[in-house]
Structures are given as structure tokens and as C-alpha cells.
Amino acid sequence: MKNFFSNVLLTVLFACPAGLLGAVELPNRIKSFDYTHNFQVKHPVLASEAKRMGSTKILEERTRDVMTISESELIRLLPQKGGMMFARCPEVKCGNRGEKFKWDIHKPDVLYCLICKRDLTTKDYPEDHTVEAVTPEGRKVQYRYHKRSDGHHCWITGGIDLRKYLYFSEKAWQLGALYLRTNDKKYARRAAVIIAQLAEAYLNTPYKIEPWLRSPYKEMHFYNGIPDDKENIDAQRARPTSWAYLDIPDKLLLAYDFIGSSGELERYAGEINMDVQKDIVRGYFMNTVESTSLKREYYGNMSPYYWAGMLIAGRVLGIPEYVHLAVLRTAEFFRQGFFYDGAWREVTSGYHQQCVNSMGVFERIVNGYSDPVDFRCKYDNSNYQNFRLFAGNMVWKAAKELVNNYLLYPDNIAVAHNDTLYNLKWRWGKPGAITPSNFVSSWRHLALKGRIDPQQIQLRIAGGPVSIHRQQDMFNITMWALGSELLGDIGYTHSRYRQYASSLPHHNTVTVDFSRHNWTTGYQGAEDKSNRMATGALPVYADISNTAFQVGQFKAVDLYDNVKNQQRTVMLVELDAKNSYAVDFFDLDSGGQSYDYFLHGNCDEQNIAPLETGFQNAAIIPERLRLPEPKGEIDPNSRKPGYGYQGFFDTKKHQDPPQVFVGHWQYKSTQSALTVYLASDGGRRSIWSGSSPSIRQAKENSAQVNKFFRRFYMQRVENPTGKVRFAAVMEPHKIGCSQIKNVTVPALGVVKITLEKRTDYIFCDLAKPQKIDGWSLSGKLGFLSLDQTGQVRDFYLYDGRISGKNFSKNAPAVLPLEISGCPHGDTFRVRDLSRLPEQYNPTVVLELPGEKSAWQFNIKSVDRQNNLVKLDRPHGLRRQAGKWVRDHYQNQSFAGKALLKVGLPERNKK
Hints:
This protein is an alpha+beta fold. Helices cover 21% and strands 29% of the residues.
């Protein structure tokens, strides 16, 4: 009964949103392990993993190179000690940041730079300098390096050794799988040779910190012996690899498991006077687990990688303590790191994918595990029997579905908002990029999309600031249409222009007084004192239920100290089954002196449209704000006013811009174009154009980043007399096939779009009625479309009024429904659901007492008899001691009324 209860308890902790797992106190570092098991394991433990590795024919092909050489040649090729990932190219002018090299078993003594295309093992780069270090086992080892003309060290042989280590680890894994498939001991023998030789190489490997992105060292730093607590024992301190998170050799552990019944490892170890348990199991496998456990635990996006390695080691070596520690850390990681709706806390699809992928592997490895009957975990006294991770957990299910349903473009590339790699593809099952419009509540990511089609237009806005990562891209918009990202985002890159790509003026948003938003970027483990994710953006309303006209709006109240309120309203308007245009209103309070509204073109292709006449060369920022170009990925100037503007070149100012300025981009490969119509109000206006670095096309080569560019247009309003408003209409179209004939601004807050067979009026935040072409328009937001005869063909109205020409419509404000309970993780009980009319906007807002923000959901269904509203995702709330409690990341409690606000727009029912 005790065994059953312990297992049920852990399942409940994972399945329920309650934060009960916090009661299990885990040390920040694990300095000692208490082994209560005798390590007797019947191999293979994880045979199911071998079944996932492709066909036997594919595995034979992938291992042919190591099977066709002699055993002595294989041993000669294996590294004798650990190497380096960030080896550094010896060519000073090469843009390689340190790790972009190629090694090939057919040229085993060559290291090839992927950036400058050079063989680095020639006599031109002699490794004629040495450094000595001492391993924890007391072995003295020497590393040779080439000293570059600028003084930097280049570890060419070390670069080869690490790539050999990674290559042969993978081959051993594949050979082990082949042994399970064929029962042919020749595969087990080769895998055994690799495992034993790499275990010996590990004993010849000192701890080190490599000079990479966040390293405190400009050169390779070696430790003598075991680092003590006063030294850097963070993830940067590693032994066989470049990062402690990757030190546990999971593929070699699986290979060890796969060949465990063959006897070949014991046979080969005996031939070279090696003890399997002492030198391989304890000296290598267990040592990597325990040394990695010394690092401080931040529960960051890389953490599941080493927990998965710890879990594999626990299962393969028969060490329950490893399994339990990995499970408990994963539970805490899930509780701390994911929002209630399944989104990872860094607000980036790239890191969300990484975390879900790694946790998915973890889930697969641990499911079905049972402890020895006499084992009790020292942390929570539990015993697992047929363990199931995340059984029935709604948040975990939502996390796995998130990217497929929300965060991909139609080409299955991840949306590059918030520090996501620009070329990242989703690897979890079948992609589902072409989906209806959607909204990720916790991230404030809104996607307005056209009809389901391979060329589906997508207009996206990132409404929430980033609390942990580095992109300054709040309110950034991107547009995908006609086969490419026409309004682009550079995304997360690794060149010396990385900080430019992250800066505010390099995104499609507004920069005030040449300065960044006042969000400081925390890091894993740092307390989020300002609760940035909750206060940054307020989605007031959105209607994304009909492709004919969709709208979303976001507010921010504290992005600048002197400009308290910002609001961006985006709309997508359908022209026909395949084409749409977008409208954008961007409103800011006064308080600043210079407001810059940016739109940047395609990052992946050179623009071929000539610049409009009327522009002359001009400096885009005052000389006093000029800053030097960055030399590396970390730039100490990145927080200064004017940062990012020095990355612009060929900047020009229009000498006499019209009220509505028309700008153009065109791209040859897709025959696509984007035409923008720009207007603004509130102060002295100017129109600018220029080029910004297109780091994507430079392929992260720092030596090439200023040779590729994309055009931007900028509206500037200076010395405002009151609130500042920017307005833009953006039409993607095939070259020469624009449907918009003219755009005018007949009144402040009203845009008139004239097309060949219809005329559209769109208004936003009209406090007083505006008389335009015989129509009276007023209220929060409205869309009116007339056919060629002047008759109403379509309309949308929220909290406003449209009247004229035998047509009159009124729309009320939002309907607040008080929430009385949470009967289920995705359901609310509300008071008096009878107040809700039959027609309502399915996108609703949850407001909690005392919180400055709101959270949006879509209503999936309503049960009027029982006053229940079922949502499309978990809401993350529960009632406890008379308060509302939100679990998972930034868990908080609230006392008072919680409201579900439902919009009641009037719109054409066709």
C-alpha cells in the first residue's frame, strides 16, 4: 500500500496545477549521493530507444565508416583526451565566432572552418604554444595551441578532439542499436572499443571554461584538479564538452545498455587492463553525473538536458537516486518555468520548443519505471512503481501543442519574436503552421491569419515584454505573405551584430527618444521583482473569429518613465479568398521629444524596388548619440540611448512628404511586393528610409554582416503637442497586382481605403463622432465596407456607432461576468450566465483583482444551465482560503472579484 500511495502522490503532483511540489526541498547543488542499490541491472533496460533509431539498413549505412576500418585504426582515430568546441579560427578577419568548424572521418587530421573555408591544420597555423593542466585524478595533460597575430589562442587539435568525441559517441550508440537488431557481436565489439577508449580519454580531461558567449574569460581557462566552491562551478565549467549541461554521455550510456548482454565490453576491458565497474561505470558515467550535479541549479532552458542524462544513467546503471532526483527537478522545473497555459516563461518559441523537446524525451525514458521494492528516496521518502510522468496534466498537453498550433509560419519556420532562432524548424511531430487565427495569452502573442491556404497571410504582434531574454521587441509586428516574411524580424543570431538585432529600432515598433524600453533583462534564477510579464501588456479586446475582419489591441503602461501609455491596434482585412491587407494604429502619450515608427522589410532577400523620389542623405540621429560598432556578441553600449541606430546606413530623409506617404518593397524570387501607406499626427512629422543589417543573409558570419541589408521606412514625430498617433496600411501583393488604389486620412483616427470595387473605412478610438462622406463614425473601433453602389457590404463595430444612408448600428461595451469558481482546469463557473446573449465574441479577457494586466482566452463552449464557461486552454487558477491562486510561473494569489469580460461587437453575420 505504501508503494502504491507514493507513486500516486507523484502522479498527482505532476497532474494537478497545485504548487505542492515546492514542499520537497532540493539542494541547489548536489555534493554527495547515497547509493542504496547494488547496481545489478538486466540489460537492455531501454531497448525501446533502439527501435526509434531508423531501419537496420539506415544504421548499417551510418556506421559503415567505423566498421570498414580495422580496430587498430579505430583506436588511433579516437581522441586521447577531451577537446574544445570554441576552438577559434586562426584567421583574424574570419567572422567565425569560435565554433563553426567541420571534421570528417575521411580527413581525420583536418579541421575545416565553415566561414572562411580554410583547412586550419596547415603549416600556416602551427600549434607551437602549450599549456598544462591537471585532471581531478591527478593526471598532467598538455594542450597545444596556435597564437594568433592579435594574441588570441586557437585550439585546432583540441577542436578536432571534441568533434571526434561527439562523432564516435553517436557511432557507439548506433552500433549498440545494431547489436540489438542483429545479435551480431561485431557491432557490440566496436561499440565496446569506443566506450572504453572514451572513458580513458575522460580521465585525461581537465575541467575548463571555454571563451564563448557568456564566458568570463577571453581565453581558455583550465582548472587544476577539482574546482572548489569559490571558483566558477556554473554550467560554463565543463569537462568532456563545452557546457556542463552536455557532459553526461547519454548516447554512450545507451550504447552501454544496448550491448550490456553481449559481454563484449567486459572482454575488451580485460584486454586493456581496464575494470568496467571501476573505470567506466564509476570513473566515467557516474563521475559525469555527480560533477554536473555540483553546478548551481537555475531551472533554466538547458536544465532538462542533463536531467535526461541523469535519468538515463539512473535507469541504465540501476541507481534509483538519480531517477528520483531527475524526476523531482523536472517537476520543479515545470512548476517554475511554464505559464498556466503551457507556454515556457522566456516568451520565445525557440526556447519553448527546446524545453518541450527535452522534457518529451525525459517523459519517454521514465514512463513505466519501477524502483526496487526496498528503495526510499531521501528527499521525499517515495518509491515509484510503474511511474507515469505528467499523467493527465492539462498544462503539459497544452505545452506540447503550443508550437504546432500557434508559433509557426506556413513554411514551418518558427516565428522569430523574442529571441527565437530565425531558421528554427519545429521537430515535434507533424507541423501545423497553417491554422486559424490564435492568441497565446501568457505571451501576448497574437496571430491574425487569412483563410486556410498554403499561402495564408499572417500578421503577428508580440505584445509582452521579455522578462528573461534579451530582445527589445515589445509591440513588434511581422507579416508573412506570398511565401515569405515581408515584414521581417532578424531573430536570435550569433554575430557581432546580435545586439543590433535585439535592439528596439531594429524591430517593427516605436522607439521614443532613441532609447530602449526600461525593462531590464533578468536571467535564470534572478527574482522578477517588477513582475514584468504581468504588467507589460493589456490585451483589451480581440476578434479573430472571422477572416473577413480581425482585430486585436494591446496596451502598455510603463515602457518608459516619461511616456506612460502606449497602445497598438492591428487589423487584418480580407480582400478575397487569398489576399488581405493590414491596418495599424499606434498611439503614445506625450512626454518624449522624438517618436520613431519603424517598418523593416524581408530579412532573407534583397529588395529590388527603387527608392521613391524626394529623399536626400541625412543623419538619422544626433552626432552626440553616435556609438562605436560592436566587436562581439556582448556589447557594453547596448543600453545607451541611440543604440542600434549606428547599425543603419544609407539613411535618407524625405524633403516634402505627402499626408499619406507610399513606400514599396519588391522581391524577385517570390515575385512578391509590399506596399505601405504611412500617416501620423501629434507633432512635427518626417519620413525616413535607410538600410539595416540583414544578419540572416550573412549566415552569422561576423565578417559579412555589413554586406547584406534590408530596407526600412520610418515615420518620425518630434516635439509633440499632445498624444502621438501613427497609422499605416500594409498590402502584400504580387508585383504589379495591387488592389488598393488610394489611401487617405479624412479625420484623425479614420483611414479610408479605396479599392477598384469597394471602399473601406476603418476607425479607432473616436471620442467624438466624425462626419465622413455622409457617414457618422464614433466609438472604440469600427470597420465599414461599401460596394461600388455605396451600399454596405460588410461592417464590424465594437463599443461604438455607425450611422448614415439608411444604415445604423450600435455596439455596447464589454460585458463583465463575475467568476464564482473553478470546477476544472479549463472551466469557470460564473454568476448569472443568462446575461450573455446568444451572439458574443468568443475571445474573452480574464481580469484578476489588483493585477495590472489581463489574460485572454477563447470560449470553447457554454453550459447555461450550470453557469459554466469552458475555455480553449487551461486557465491556471484555483480557489484556496478565499483567494484566487495562479500556479506555475509567477504563481500569485489574489483577493477579491475575478471577472471574465466578454466583448459584444456588432458585425455582418454573413
